[in-house]
Amino acid sequence: MTTSLPKPRYLDRRSPPHLTTLVLIAGIAALSLNVFLPSLPSMAKAFGVDYAVMQLSVSLYLASTAVLQILIGPISDRMGRRPVMLWAVALFTLASVGAVLAPNFGLFLTCRLAQAVIATGFVLSRAVVRDMVPQDQAASMIGYVTMGMSVVPMVGPVLGGALDEAFGWQASFAILAIAGAGLFVLLWFDMGETSVSRPTSLGAQIRQYPALLTSQRFWGYCLAAGFASGAFFAYLGGAPYVATTFFHMDSATLGLHFGAPALGYMFGNFISGRYSVRFGVNKMVLMGAILATLGMSVLLLLEVLGLATPILFFALMVPMGVGNGMLMPNASAGMLSVRPSLAGSAAGLGGAFMIGGGAALSALAGFILGPQTGATPLVGLMLVVSAAAILSILWVIRRERVVKASGG
Fold it and tell me: Which of the chain's termini has less CB crowding within 10 Å, N or C?
């Protein structure tokens, strides 16, 4: 696919957005997920609710994010990326202000769920890239976007904890409101429209969906990305239990080790940005899945032999992070390229698939671990889903060969 869009010019809304703008869109969306997590205990006390009730601001938010990603893609395919993104950021900013001022938990939770509209940033930062450039180059650009975004999960909770300590829980939401207002101004001046091949009607758009939803390539890329993200979500759900129960780590030590996969993910994103154009998306997805699987295989072997230590456990999560950093941008570019005119829909559906599947695997990780199990069930689960990502991309590669051989 070739594009007729002009090259991005910074702060020129007649051209596509600059790469740094796309990084900020995705970064603020990621920041909203976790910046307030250290404040949950103090928020529960402030609102007079149980901690389990307060956690609804996390679980319901994730559920809302998954649903919105399905809806935002088709809406942006029909209405355009620019207006949808501007409206989303404006609503996010107002919801953040509402969360700061909320006098009770009910109103706070309402504003918190309204904040989920910023999930638009996850969808459109990728869809805009696919609007701008061909598949392999899209994987490279998405790699750089997610490399910047991957820093946020590491610094967000640290920032939120510091703000909570100094100013109270409201400070995290005040920062989100300020970030949202600043992003709106930036988008107004920098984000030109990139969706130039929109369907003439919603009916015309819907008639294109079967070509996307029945594509084996699309679902192969979705499954590869879903299994890879599932391994990371399983880590998020199970590693804190493993660290505290079996390694007897305190929270400070756990915090020091917990970011190991995120560091690997950032390096994997860099590799994607550097080499996706050279090797192509399928090879990059395959290499990333193999690397993650090898890391988990070595760790499982060490666990079975009784040789795993806390340092080795977290160190061998780094290859999983690197592999996912290589796999995710390329799988995303692949699923967006199956039907370029429905890139927004593909991004939203793929994102919802990854979050929904990841949340399920996170819950499963907590379910399979017990006081006597050790880390083996968690590592085994991560190995299985990482290996499933290999099978998924091999399915895509085989499908492409069949289509080429048949002249399709």
Answer: C
User: How far, in Å, CA of 161 to CA of 360, rounded?
Assistant: 27
DSSP tag of 118: G
Helix (H) or strand (E) segment spanning residue 322? helix 317-337
**First-to-last CA distance in the chain?**
16
Closest-CA residue to 226 (of 298, 324, 130, 128):
324
Instruction: Look up tokens 């660290």; give the residue.
Output: 243
CA quadruple 366, 367, 371, 373: dihedral sign: negative
Q: What does the block give as tokens for 140?
A: 């490279």
1.10.287.950, 2.60.40.10, 3.90.1150.10, 1.20.1250.20: CATH of 209-405: 1.20.1250.20
b vs e for 187-198, b when ≥16 Cβ sit within 10 Å of the residue's Cβ?
Answer: beebbbbbbeeb
Torsions phi, psi of 35, nearest 5? Answer: -65, -30
pLDDT given for residue 1 in this prediction: 45
Quick check: 234 and 111 in contact, CB under 8 A?
A: no
Handedness of CA 345, 154, 280, 215 (dihedral sign): negative
Q: Which residues contact 317 (CB under 8 A, 6 or more apart)?
A: 235, 239, 260, 261, 264, 295, 299
Q: Smallest Cα–Cα separation from 121: which of 219, 28, 8?
A: 28
Q: How many angstroms separate the CA atoms of 307 and 264, rounded? A: 23
Domain formed by 19-198, architecture: Up-down Bundle (1.20)
Domain boundaries, the chain: 19-198, 209-405
In the DSSP assignment, the letter for residue 342 is G
Distance CA 315, CA 269 (A): 18
Blockwise average pLDDT, block size 10, the chain, 408 residues:
67 84 88 79 86 76 80 81 94 96 94 91 82 76 72 73 86 95 95 73 66 85 91 80 82 70 86 87 95 97 92 94 92 83 75 76 78 90 96 94 74
